[in-house]
Amino acid sequence: MFFFENYKKALLNIKEYLQKDLAPLEIQAAQIYGSSTYKRGFVPGVSDIDICVYTDKMNSLDAHEIIEIVRNSNQDFKDKNPVSIDDYVARRIEFYIKHPDIAFDITILPPEVPRIENIDKTSSYDSIDMIIGALYQHGVPLFGEIPEKKRVERDFLPFYSNDLRRKRLDILGKRLEGYTKRIEFLTETKDPDIMDHLYKTRNHFIKWLFMYKRKYPVCLHKHLKYQFDDILELKEEEQNILFFNKNQSIYKSALEFINLSKKYYINYYKEKTIEDRKKTNCQIINNIARKDSYGR
Description:
alpha+beta
């Protein structure tokens, strides 16, 4: 890919840094992700290179011990010194490294897929879909093999099972029902607070839409044009609605967004109804066949 040639020296330098300067961390693998791995979105001179590194030390050392190891490597961290984060995305340590050619945004993770143990219950707020999309589908190895690669390929690619998809869609759908009602109320009352709620609702709906279309996103608030074009293949009209750029009035944009989302919800409910009927018919047929076998 293009960045391997344009930033070959920088990538070799960062690889050496991770393997030698951070040798006490015994890093197993490093995966490049983000805009530098997409067909478009990377802007030379503006974008940085995102790298996830994996180590068992995240499970055996305290976060402050790992942070001290990174700090003692004597790098220019710009304005992002090593920091420990534990949220709905993942338990991780993040820091920045300033290189003469390009900056690197580095995340240290334990070797397991973050937050995957409750994947059937947490779709409203987890980031599993983005992790699979950005790191496993689009990510490029710097060195080593990303942990649990075979498991993810087996269980989650090209997409997770229909039953798991339905559970996650329904959980997120219930959350969106409440958000949609609030947007409708704020639109009717011309409440200026609609902006915050509208963008939050859009992020959740975009996540829902990716699930509905059986695709993994790479991010819910960046590189949307690339994702709408190349991954979701949305019509231009739908993209304009989701970008809120059709109308000067944010309230008109909100109404169009609500109408678009409801269209997709209706299609999904029709899909569910057909699936449920098929299951019911199969059960009836199986029961009849069982009775016939007993009669004989």
